[in-house]
Amino acid sequence: MKLIVGLGNPGKKYEHTRHNMGFDVIDLFSELAKIDIDKEAFKGLVGRGKVFEEDIYLLKPQTYMNLSGESVREIVAYFKIPTEDIIVIYDDLDLEPGKIRLRLSGSSGGHKGIQNIIENLGTEEIKRIRIGIGKPTFDTIDYVLGKPLKEERPLIDEAINKAVDALKEILKNNFDSAMNKYNR
C-alpha cells in the first residue's frame, strides 16, 4: 500500500496557486486513475484506489501547508503505512517552472510543509516529487500564494503532467526507475 500526499492550502482562495502544486498533481492523477478524493478523514481529503495492481491512498491535507505533517501522521498511524511507501509532492522555489525533481530523502530545504511532515514522522527518509515554481522577484509569501504568470502557466502545466507521469512510473516500476527517467 502506498500513500501519495499532495501539499497545498485548502480553500478557493488558494486554488492553482504556486504553493498548491501538490494538490494540482493529486487532482490530475486522481482524475486519470478514476479515484475520488471525497472522504474527509485524518485532517484531510482522502481517496483510495488501485493503480497497476498497487493499493494507494491519495491525501490532500486540509491543515494548511505548515501543519501538513499532522494529517500525514494520522493516516500513517491508522493504516500502519511504512515510511518507504510514502510519496510527498510539493512546490519548490529552487527549481525553475516546468522542472521536477525526485528525491529519496533529505532536508526540507526550507519548505515548511515537508519540514512539518519530517518532524511529525521523525525522519527525513521520505520520498518526494518537487515541482519547480522558480525564485520570486518580490515578497516570497505573496509569490508562493499567488497564481503563476500567464507565461509561466504552460511550464507549470508541463511540470504537473511530468509529476503525474513520474507517479505512474513509480507505481508501475519503482522510485529509482522514475528518478532515472525524470531527474534529467
Descriptive overview:
The protein has 184 residues and is an alpha/beta fold. It has one domain: Peptidyl-tRNA hydrolase (Rossmann fold, 3-Layer(aba) Sandwich), CATH 3.40.50. It is built from 6 helices and 7 strands; from the N terminus they run βαβββαββαβααα. The protein has helices spanning 21-33, 68-79, 112-121, 140-144, 153-172, 175-182; strands at 2-6, 39-41, 44-51, 54-61, 86-92, 100-103, 127-132. A 7-stranded mixed beta sheet has the order 2-3-4-1-5-7-6, with helices on both faces. The mean pLDDT is 96.
User: Radius of gyration, Cα only, in angstroms?
Assistant: 15 Å
Total number of strands: 7
Label the structural class.
alpha/beta
SSE ordering: EHEEEHEEHEHHH
What fraction of the residues are assigned to beta strands by DSSP? Answer: 15-25%
| Main beta sheet | 7 strands, mixed
Low-pLDDT sequence parts: none
What fraction, in percent, of the residue positions are helical?
25-40%
Shape: globular
Structure in a nutshell:
With 184 residues, the protein is of the alpha/beta class.
Task: Give keywords.
alpha/beta; Rossmann fold; 184 residues; single chain; 37% helix; seven-stranded mixed beta sheet
Secondary structure layout plus pairing:
Layout: E1 2-6, H1 21-33, E2 39-41, E3 44-51, E4 54-61, H2 68-79, E5 86-92, E6 100-103, H3 112-121, E7 127-132, H4 140-144, H5 153-172, H6 175-182
Parallel strand pairs: 1-4, 1-5, 5-7
Antiparallel strand pairs: 2-3, 3-4, 6-7
Helix pairs in contact: 1-5, 2-3, 5-6
